[in-house]
Amino acid sequence: MLALSRKKSEAIVINNNIEVTILEVKGDQVKIGITAPREVPVYRKEVYEQIQNANREAVSLEGMEALKTLSQSLKR
């Protein structure tokens, strides 16, 4: 992990096309702004983890069995 110190209005650039700017610092809370191309998804980590868990559940063994059953019934 790279740890950087930034002050209000300072930014970092990632991969030439993503910019993260410090907008405000209040106590222990930091407000950041992210500028990225539309095709780059940006999520809060807790939301990203929920999406990943939902995706894993969707392709779970039960889900695969349901697809297999559906596939077999379509072949008939």
Summed up:
The protein contains two helices and three strands, in the order βββαα. By secondary structure, it is of the alpha+beta class.
List the SSEs and their pairings.
Layout: E1 11-14, E2 18-26, E3 29-35, H1 45-58, H2 61-75
Antiparallel strand pairs: 1-2, 2-3
Explain how this protein is built.
By secondary structure, the chain is α+β, with helices and mostly antiparallel strands. The protein contains two helices and three strands. The chain has a three-stranded antiparallel beta sheet, with no helix packed on it. The longest helix has 15 residues, at 61-75. The model has no long low-confidence stretch (mean pLDDT 90).
Uncertain parts: none
Terminal CA distance: 54 Å
| Overall mean pLDDT | 90
Using the CA coordinates, give the radius of gyration: 21 Å
Strand order of the largest sheet: 1-2-3
Order of helices and strands: EEEHH
List its salient traits.
single chain; 76 residues; alpha+beta; 3-stranded antiparallel beta sheet; 2 helices; elongated
